[in-house]
Design brief:
With about 400 residues, this protein is of the alpha+beta class. It folds into two domains: about 260 residues, FAD/NAD(P)-binding domain, CATH 3.50.50.60; about 140 residues, D-Amino Acid Oxidase, Chain A, domain 2 (2-Layer Sandwich), CATH 3.30.9.10. Helices cover about 25% and strands about 25% of the residues. The protein is built from eight helices and 19 strands. Strands 1, 2, 3, 9, 10, 11, 12, 18 and 19 form a nine-stranded mixed sheet that branches. Strand 1 and strand 2 form a beta hairpin. Helix 2 runs parallel beside helix 6, helix 2 packs across helix 8 and helix 3 crosses helix 8. It is globular, with a radius of gyration of 22 Å.
Length: about 400
């Protein structure tokens, strides 16, 4: 049951607040963490000047656990599949609670190749997927074009993965924001100036507007910004880096049927590109991944390369209106997998480092953090233990006891 009275349980004295859980960052990961914590009866606050934004605002929303599989990521695959399996119920729960559509679609994904080398790469990927027991069907070029007639005649083959779906990250963010609000989460619309500590224990944060928040547990869920939060010793900062991604949004003319019925991914001369069609006529185009630090400039080269590769795949794309160009920063960890749960500092937890899988891992991250915050041991559930926050440190830590769940009070 949602903790409808939770916002009234957070003590407020001018610019001083006391709460069970302070979530730093209001992107989809921070919002789902706050929502699930509040549902468990914890007084919860989110510190973010513009909650509902973050890297997901720039993401395409592919839920592609199978087609995005890479060698050496078998452990991450299990977590991705677990989260993908949660999505139908997760999306339905959000819609039932908020009345808002998340844009979740069971449309499937088609990954295609345009030349012999790219076809060979997809064949290898198919063999790898099959060896892991994943459902993936090899199609000839003709079969690909039968599914998606607007594809270029040069398509040489592809993989049909009906289990890889999509969601609209912007709608998802809006729904999570509303769900968290309904659950009683308090939104402190200011950035965190610094985390506060008493010895080896994190005690909350001071915000840029001067607000002081005392919290039993503080969760860093600020995406790539999590790695440079002030107030923490260097060896306690999460090892996350910004990974730049550029995307384009195009739109079908009113009244015309969409060019595509499902998400299409391609390898074009070794470069990856994806096209994600929305029910509203929008087509999201992307796949750049650049290690350029904190730069969020949309570059002519990035736009050109995306349009060039997409045009080879879908020639009719040049007829569409280009409505938006954006660049965002994904939080990458050393192994590009999430950092979850307790850290070496008592009272500090992480929910960051999701890299390209932040939207996909939203449901499972909320479940994992809620369990850590409220269980008797404070340990990660078994299925998430490979992604502990301390796996890149030598310090280690003991279990994190749960923040005390306060009973709902009725007037």
């Amino acid at each position: 049951m949602p903790a409808k009275g939770a916002r009234h349980l957070m003590r407020e004295h001018g610019l001083h607040h006391t709460t069970d859980v302070l979530v730093v960052g209001g992107g989809v990961i921070g919002l789902v963490t706050a929502w699930r914590a509040a549902q468990r009866g914890l007084a919860t606050a989110v510190a973010d000047p513009a909650p509902g934004g973050g890297a997901a605002h720039v993401a395409a929303g592919m839920l592609a656990a199978v087609t995005e599989l890479q060698y050496g990521e078998q452990a991450l695959l299990d977590l991705n599949l677990a989260s993908a399996a949660r999505y139908p119920d997760f999306a339905a729960e959000l819609t039932e609670l908020t009345g808002l559509d998340t844009g979740y679609r069971r449309c499937g994904t088609l990954a295609v190749a345009l030349d012999a080398d790219d076809r060979a790469h997809l064949r290898e990927l198919h063999a790898f997927q099959t060896s892991l027991g994943l459902e993936s069907q090899w199609l000839s070029g003709r079969e690909c074009r039968r599914l998606e007639p607007m594809l270029a005649p040069g398509v040489r083959g592809g993989l049909r993965v009906d289990g890889d779906h999509q969601v609209d990250p912007r709608r998802l963010s809006t729904a999570l924001l509303r769900a968290a609000d309904l659950a009683g989460v308090v939104f402190l619309r200011s950035a965190v100036a610094r985390v506060t500590a008493d010895g080896d224990r994190v005690t909350g944060a001071v915000l840029a507007d001067g607000t002081v928040v005392a919290a039993a547990r503080t969760v860093l869920a600020a995406g790539s910004e999590s790695g440079r939060i002030a107030g923490l010793p260097d060896d306690a900062l999460p090892p996350v880096r910004p990974v730049k991604g550029q995307i384009l949004r195009l739109r079908m003319p009113a009244g015309q049927p969409p060019f595509l019925t499902r998400t299409v991914r391609a390898v074009v001369r070794g470069s990856h590109v994806y096209l994600v069609p929305r029910d509203n006529g929008e087509l999201v185009l992307g796949a750049t991944s650049e290690e350029f630090g904190w730069d969020t400039t949309v570059t002519a080269g990035g736009v050109y390369e995306l349009l060039r590769d997409a045009h080879e795949l879908l020639p009719g794309i040049t007829e569409l209106a280009l409505t938006e160009t954006l660049a965002g920063l994904r939080p990458g960890s050393p192994d590009n997998a999430p950092l979850l749960g307790a850290t070496a500092l008592d009272g500090l937890l992480l929910a960051t480092g999701h890299h390209r899988n932040g939207v996909l891992l939203t449901p499972v991250t909320g479940d994992v953090l809620a369990e850590v915050l409220t269980s008797s041991t404070g340990e990660l559930p078994q299925y998430a233990r490979a992604f502990g926050a301390n796996r890149f440190t030598t310090t280690g830590t003991g279990p994190v006891p749960p923040a005390p769940a306060r009973q709902e009070q009725h007037a």
